[in-house]
Automatic annotation (TrEMBL):
Family from the record: Belongs to the PPR family. P subfamily.
PROSITE patterns: PPR
Pfam families in alphabetical order: PPR_1, PPR_2
InterPro entries documented for this protein: PPR-containing_protein, PPR_rpt, TPR-like_helical_dom_sf
Record keywords: Repeat
Annotated protein name in UniProt: Pentatricopeptide repeat-containing protein
PPR repeat residues: 166-200, 202-236, 237-271, 272-306, 307-341, 342-376, 377-411, 412-446, 447-481, 482-516, 517-551, 552-586
Coiled coil: none
Species of origin: Pyrus ussuriensis x Pyrus communis
DNA sequence: TTAGGGTTAG
């Protein structure tokens, strides 16, 4: 991966790509190129709709309307929306169902799905008859609440009221299946629509299924669906292309994404800021700053201007590369362009500082975030908590955990897992267990990761009876766990010099229907070597090949070090030859070992030249 | 004059 060296100033970023003597210098004159782009939030849309709604009341006096407007502008939450709803219910004659639908729509956009359901019930009690729009909104809310059964049962209401579900209704249901990871059922309903006479899928229906396929990692099927559209089923729009381009970028298939991008533009579909954001994110993840710069320049030349997401990608990438100062320069640019840094911007910056162990700086960013009235969420706290845990400042981590609760922010799975891991790494197993009980008591069910963290903590602290008990608890819960869990315990047993138990567990894997991966073999081989069982280690090396698991660099380095440490130099040398023939290299610690042996005159100096890595 | 699909931080 190419690593960029960047010198930043507030007006430009000088991006250099060090590659031997050949260094290109590029200037990113972002500041001069990017005009501001202010996005309206859904809350603003919400206000505007209500202002329009009340403007339409011709019977009201100007004075009362001004009072209403003044009051409505203050609507920022569900409570205020509920007040408006109740007020509407008391008006006579009752406003039309259309106006109620508008409220339901806005609440659904704010993700208050269960509120929508209860308001709909209230409407029914008040004698307001739902229309096709109302019922579709309700289907959508049930889908988002993962209550597909109720969503499907609304179809009965359609027929009862003499309505026919339409393309929107079916598309909503397809989306519901996808939200529940039931892509096959989504595809079946889609097919039924294709075969139907009057409910053929439209571009939104296709887009919904494309999203589902991409979410499943099935880019090929998504592209096939796109081809079907291009063949005439329905003209694909930018949303369809963006979904697939984004999915390809997330799978690091950036070249494929760029090919699709070219295909799209050649067909006359113009890219937008989201297309560029996905591509820039894709190339940034690969460390390709040069391409990111080219894309930024290209989008601006097309009058497509970077938005807060574009900047967030840049801030995050700089932070992940440890270049927090450069990230700060990007934030400066955002502010100069009147683009307000978001929760994500500040969270990335905090993460950047935490990765460098600079907790005080991270906390300062957090203070800025609070002082600017920027929303703080569980993720913001998780970053700080993780930073404290990594520095073994568990008391600070616990304080932050309490502070977030006081602010009314509900700790999520990541919060608990981070803290449990922190306690385990400090050997404070009881504290970790207490947190596990606390999360369960609060209705947060531990996931495989939680158990793996605890298992790792128990085995590193040599509490094997408890570790085995936990493993059995996991097996009993039928959690969707895999080889990672067993590798943790096998490694723990090996480190505790309980190689026989580790080997028993390793051998029991096939009975459990779980296949060991390369890491399992490496752990076991290392365990054998450390226990002086070099023959067993070599046997396992051969066995893994027979079972179709190719050894990697780590396998060879582990076993070679094992032979050297067990004074079996000739077998070590033979394996070095085998490793080099297979194109693997000696790692730093193997080289160090050989150099030490050379200094003691215990190996042939020719060996050093032999192990030199061609890379 | 209202319903359904796409982007960013673990």
């Amino acid at each position: 991966m190419m690593r960029a060296t960047i010198a930043a100033s507030s007006s430009s970023l000088k991006v250099g790509y060090g590659s031997g003597s050949c260094t290109t210098r590029l200037r990113l004159k972002l500041k001069d190129m990017l005009p501001c782009l202010v996005q309206s939030s859904s809350v603003v849309v919400f206000f505007n709709n209500y202002l329009a709604l009340f403007h339409s009341r011709t019977s009201e006096s100007t004075e009362s309307r001004n009072t209403q407007q003044h009051r409505l502008v203050k609507i920022t939450n569900v409570e205020d929306a509920l007040d408006v709803f109740d007020e509407m219910l008391q008006r006579r004659p009752l406003p039309s169902v259309v106006h109620f639908n508008q409220i339901l729509t806005q609440l659904a956009k704010l993700k208050h799905y269960s509120t929508v359901i209860s308001l709909n019930n209230k409407m029914g009690v008040s004698g307001i008859c739902p229309d096709v729009y109302t019922l579709s909104i309700i289907v959508n809310c049930f889908c988002h609440l993962h209550q597909m059964g109720f969503g499907l049962s609304v179809l009965g209401n359609f027929f009862k009221l003499g309505f026919e579900p339409n393309i929107t209704t079916y598309t909503t249901l397809i989306n519901g299946f996808i939200l529940q990871n039931r892509v096959a059922e989504a595809a079946t309903l889609f097919k039924k629509m294709l075969d139907s006479g009057n409910c053929k899928p439209n571009v939104v229906t296709f887009g919904t299924l494309v999203k589902g396929l991409c979410a499943k990692g099935n880019n090929t099927a998504a592209i096939q669906l796109l081809k079907k559209m291009e063949e005439g089923a329905c003209k694909p729009n930018i949303v369809i292309y963006n979904t697939i381009i984004d999915s390809l970028c997330k799978d690091t298939l950036v070249a494929d994404a760029q090919n699709l991008f070219s295909e799209m533009t050649s067909k006359g579909v113009a890219p937008n800021v989201r297309t560029y954001n996905s591509l820039i994110h894709g190339v940034c993840k690969l460390g390709n700053w040069k391409e990111a710069t080219r894309l930024l320049n290209e989008m601006v030349s097309k009058h497509i201007f970077p938005n807060v997401c574009t900047f967030n990608v840049l801030v995050d990438t700089f932070c992940k590369e440890g270049m927090v100062q450069e990230a700060r320069s990007v934030v400066e640019m955002m502010i100069q362009r009147d683009i307000e840094p978001s929760t994500i911007t500040y969270s990335s910056l905090m993460d950047g500082y935490c990765l460098r162990g600079e907790m005080d700086e991270a906390k300062k960013v957090f203070e800025v975030m609070l002082s600017k009235g920027c929303m703080v969420d569980a993720h913001s706290y998780n970053i700080l908590i993780n930073g404290c845990c990594k520095l073994k400042r568990m008391d600070d981590a616990r304080m932050l955990f309490l502070e977030m609760s006081h602010r009314g922010i509900v700790p999520n799975m990541v919060t608990y897992n981070t803290l449990i891991d922190g306690f385990c790494k400090m050997g404070r197993i009881q504290d970790a267990h207490n947190l596990l009980s606390q999360m369960q008591a609060l209705g947060q069910l531990p996931n495989v990761r939680t158990y793996n963290i605890l298992l790792d903590g128990l085995s590193k602290n040599q509490q094997f009876p408890k570790a085995v008990e936990l493993l059995e608890e996991m097996e009993g819960k039928k959690l969707d766990f895999d080889i990672v869990t067993y590798n943790i315990l096998i490694q723990g047993l090996c480190r505790a010099e309980k190689v026989e138990y580790a080997w028993d567990l390793f051998q029991s894997l096939s009975l459990k229907g779980i296949q060991p991966d390369v890491r399992s073999y490496n752990i076991m081989i290392s365990g054998f070597c450390n226990g002086g069982l070099t023959c067993e280690a070599e046997n396992l090396l051969r066995e893994m090949e027979e079972r179709g698991r190719s050894p990697d660099d780590c396998t060879y380095n582990t076993i070679i070090r094992g032979f050297f440490n067990n004074n079996d130099t000739s077998r070590a040398v033979r394996l070095i030859q085998e490793m080099v023939e297979r194109g693997f290299c000696a790692d730093a610690s193997t080289v160090e070992l050989i150099v030490n042996l050379l200094s003691k005159d215990e190996v042939n100096p020719a060996l050093l030249a032999f192990i030199k890595c061609p890379r």
